[in-house]
Q: What sequence folds into this?
């Protein structure tokens, strides 16, 4: 289930109701009175949850799922376990979004509460700037500084001797000790999870968290999205510059360096000690090995092995890129010289 510090669970709800709000059809009408309490991915599901299958790459997960119910297209219905109640739909992800919206609700700040909620816990020596807002159940560690007009959402934890800059917004996040987050950074907003059906696009509820480990620095106006289900994780001693975008479900290793305007798409796995030049960008689901280097403005479309350096767009190993550049320069000079 999603972390109760950040999300309310609104179930249990009958499968008949979920079928009605999602447009799905129950494979067995007798399953309509079965109830589920939450959503979960196929590999994480249990009897109390409903999941969805929309990608052939996860067919083994469908066959082995422990979820009590699943949205699935008709052609894959025979692949689900016998005990899993099926809701048939041509748009399983769209139906899942509707179910997630019905079963879970993000905890938000209320305008009726005082600026610092009475249930928030502030240890000794916490310093608050003017206009700070701290939500219900938040915990701020000893010696932390929260800058003017910063917002700390319900349930968040900020470790000892950390510093949060002015106008930073932190939600759905657990933050370690000695973390520095500069002005205007936004941590924990929903990732870019969107699905479409019948010409309509909807946001898929993002039910994960952001985990920021000890001694991390995060620059001004940087955005780190919470996970869709699994957490977005920033490893200890990582240093992130201004204006960086880190999408949902990214796992960033220890001691990484990200220069300004780096963009990392969803579900990328970054090893320890990786460095990104300014403006580098990664496509989704890319893996980068320990100690790799990604040059400025590189466009990474595939996995990068550990210890290598890649540049260019699309990015490729530096030696390959330089050979290609030299060949192009030579051909251009030859053709140019021959035309005179």
A:
């Amino acid at each position: 289930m999603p972390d109760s510090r950040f999300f309310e669970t609104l179930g249990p709800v009958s499968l008949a109701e979920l079928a009605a709000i999602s447009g799905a059809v129950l494979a067995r009408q007798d399953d309509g009175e079965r109830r589920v309490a939450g959503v979960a991915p196929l590999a994480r599901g249990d009897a109390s949850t409903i999941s969805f299958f929309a990608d052939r790459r996860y067919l083994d997960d469908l066959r082995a799922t422990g979820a009590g119910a699943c949205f699935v297209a008709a052609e894959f219905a025979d692949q689900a376990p016998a005990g899993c109640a099926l809701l048939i739909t041509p748009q399983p992800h769209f139906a899942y979004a509707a179910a997630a919206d019905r079963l879970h609700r993000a905890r938000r700040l209320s305008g009726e509460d005082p600026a610092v909620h009475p249930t928030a816990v502030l240890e000794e020596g916490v310093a608050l700037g003017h206009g700070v807002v701290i939500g219900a159940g938040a915990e701020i560690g000893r010696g932390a500084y929260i800058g003017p007009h910063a917002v700390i959402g319900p349930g968040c934890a900020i470790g000892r001797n950390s510093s949060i800059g002015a106008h930073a917004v932190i939600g759905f996040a657990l933050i370690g000790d000695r973390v520095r987050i500069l002005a205007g950074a936004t941590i924990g907003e929903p990732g870019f999870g969107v699905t479409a059906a019948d010409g309509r696009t909807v946001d898929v509820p993002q039910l994960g968290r952001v985990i920021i480990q000890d001694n991390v620095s995060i620059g001004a106006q940087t955005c780190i999205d919470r996970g869709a289900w699994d957490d977005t994780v920033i490893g200890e001693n990582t240093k992130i510059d201004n204006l960086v975008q880190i999408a949902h479900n990214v796992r960033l290793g220890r001691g990484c360096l990200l220069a300004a305007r780096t963009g990392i798409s969803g579900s990328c796995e970054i090893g320890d000690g990786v460095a990104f030049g300014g403006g580098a960008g990664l496509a989704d689901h890319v893996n980068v090995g320990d100690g790799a280097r990604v040059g400025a403005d590189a466009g990474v479309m595939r996995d990068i092995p550990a210890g290598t350096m890649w540049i260019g767009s699309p990015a490729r190993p530096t030696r390959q890129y330089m050979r290609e550049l030299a060949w192009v320069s030579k051909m251009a000079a030859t053709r140019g010289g021959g035309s005179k």
Observations:
- The helical segments are 15-22, 59-64, 92-103, 318-338.
